[in-house]
């Protein structure tokens, strides 16, 4: 099979291997230089050689299945738009650049965030090029649970909990689906690991009365949680998404960091079956 080095969709060998979850660019660069990678039947020792989906690549003798779709988990920081591009502001896709790539290209064309978080909201954002999955997770009627950690003004009362559970009327505009409120102190260990420690102290000293709460909603309307709390005369001071359906934010990701989903995570969210990782071990 001949190499398609001049194809527009070609990319560096080390970058392709990293995209498939086989290690970091520098680890994979070393592996390539040590002769562990074959391209179209020939040992390739140049990590910068251009390869594409049509090339047959073996890593330690095992085929590297190039995935048809890619899936990343981003810990979205505040101050970044959940959009693919914007003429003035930084978007979440600007964060998915490979700093060791001179051209600073976004990791793959066609990526988009699955749903939106407000500019000031942090936390779990799935970024993919799998339109079908996005539809399955977001389409009205799918009702995927999304859990957030929120700091809100005032004391959240039993009455607030009941009102959220019954379905609040928001801005006289729509009736929200039943939503669950729980004190953040009751978070299980998985969620507790995702709750930032210093948020409470960073909130303005003028606000003396606030509550830390876990909110689970099933829809994703514009400013939904902020509007739900506003209808209970409370303001959301801080918001972070911790989970989406069965997918939880990786606690080791700092704001702004991302990683590919593992094969298991792709399975549990119903990602494309070809999108499994090849493991060299
Ligand atoms: N609800 C909001 O109000 N904002 C978000 O970013 C997500 C949910």
Give a structural overview.
The protein contains nine helices and 17 strands. The model is unreliable at 276-281 (pLDDT under 50). A hairpin with a 2-residue loop joins strand 2 and strand 3. Strands 7, 8, 9, 10, 13, 14, 15, 16 and 17 form a nine-stranded mixed sheet that branches. It is elongated. Helix 1 (13-19) packs across helix 2 (25-33). It has two domains: 11-63, Roll (Structural Genomics Hypothetical 15.5 Kd Protein In mrcA-pckA Intergenic Region, Chain A); 71-260, 2-Layer Sandwich (Pseudouridine synthase), CATH 3.30.2350. The protein has 281 residues and is α+β, with helices and mostly antiparallel strands. The site of uracil (URA) has 8 residues, from helix 8.
What's the CATH architecture of the largest domain?
2-Layer Sandwich
Write down the CATH topology of the largest domain. Answer: Pseudouridine synthase
The kinds of small molecule bound in this structure are: uracil
Instruction: Write out the CATH superfamily name of the largest domain.
Output: Pseudouridine synthase
Task: Give the uncertain stretches in residue-range form.
Answer: 276-281
What's the quaternary structure here?
single chain
Number of strands: 17
What does the main sheet amount to? Answer: 9 strands, mixed
Provide the structure class.
Answer: alpha+beta
* Radius of gyration, whole Å: 22 Å
Strand content: 15-25%
What distance lies between the first and last C-alpha atoms, to the nearest angstrom?
A: 27 Å
Helix content: 10-25%
- Provide mean pLDDT, rounded: 87
Count of helical regions = 9
